[in-house]
Write a structure and sequence with these properties.
The chain has about 280 residues and is α/β, with parallel strands linked by helices. The chain is built from eleven helices and 13 strands. The strands form three sheets. Strands 10-9-8-13-11-12 form a six-stranded mixed β-sheet, with helices on both faces. Helix 3 (about 65-80) crosses helix 4 (about 95-105) and helix 5 (about 120-135) packs antiparallel against helix 6.
Length: about 280
């Protein structure tokens, strides 16, 4: 067991090989479809989307309990961890980080550092990945937290949606924006603003134009020549994810570009076919 353990919630969507390699513990959110409730780690995205097609209502999501976090913290301390960095999706999107703070206050040891990532989905996952690499390198826990606060300001997340309807029904975006999007048949590009909330970055008339706009933002951030970790995130559309990543690899062969899927919680809010791009400077 490393001196500093890293904990994240399930909406960061790192793959199991990364979680295993860096010993990252995951506390899952929950999703309810009809009368069934699952933790996000026990139902696949395609299975979840299939269940959605069998019901008339809308799925709901819920944060982990304080007890869920406390169990993980105590397990890590019992295994020999001296400190914990617990990183979670933005408080502007979920109460998950609040539950983590409450568990921190109840833990038998007090060296638990709960960090609000200020973002969500794979952008938050990339931050947890970075924290775990620093922990492996023996960086002191307080320095890890300082590094994360700096890296948060340089982390980007964009999502291209087929529709805003899921976000509207889930209460994550205003109804007016959804109506406008439907009437104009636009492809909205979403981001997370400086308040940690979902915001509309741009509205364009086609997926191709939306992707072009996101690529323009990426090009601006890569213009300085600094290495980045760039990740494509798909929602139940692995072929689209691989096609998009292949395009980026041809354009940026020196960059670290990977593909990740999104789980049921994000799928519930953005819908199948949504495409995300998350990146940050690394190393």
């Amino acid at each position: 067991m490393r001196k500093t353990a890293v904990v994240m919630d399930s909406t960061g969507y790192l793959t199991q090989d990364i979680l295993d390699r860096f010993h990252i513990r995951v506390v899952p959110l929950k999703v309810t479809v009809g009368e069934e409730t699952f933790t996000e780690t026990e139902i696949g995205t395609l299975d979840f989307l299939g269940k959605l097609r069998q019901i008339s209502g809308f799925p709901t999501t819920s944060q982990p309990s304080v007890g869920d976090f406390l169990t993980v913290y105590e397990d890590l301390f019992a295994a020999g961890a001296e400190s914990i960095v617990s990183l979670h999706l933005s408080e502007g999107l979920s109460g998950t980080v609040v539950a983590a703070r409450m568990a921190r206050d109840l833990a038998s040891k007090h060296d638990v550092h709960v960090v609000d990532s200020g973002t969500g989905a794979l952008a938050f996952g990339l931050l947890a990945w970075a924290a775990a690499e620093w922990a492996e390198a023996g960086v002191p826990v307080r320095r890890i937290v300082e590094h994360l606060e700096d890296l948060k300001t340089q982390t980007r997340l964009y999502f291209i949606l087929e529709t805003l309807e899921n976000l509207r029904r889930g209460g994550r975006i205003g109804g007016g924006a959804a109506v406008v999007g439907t009437l104009l048949q636009i492809k909205p590009i979403l981001c997370v603003n400086n308040k940690g909330q979902i915001d509309v970055f741009a509205k364009v008339r086609s997926r191709a134009k939306a992707w072009g706009r996101v690529k323009d933002e990426l090009a601006k951030d890569l213009a300085g020549g600094r290495p980045h970790r760039i990740c494509v995130q798909h929602v139940g559309s692995p072929d689209l994810g691989e096609k998009t990543a292949s395009e980026l690899r041809r354009e940026y062969p020196q960059q670290d570009i990977r593909v990740f899927g999104a789980g049921p919680v994000i799928a519930a809010h953005v819908g199948q076919g949504a495409l995300g791009l998350a990146y940050l400077p690394w190393p």
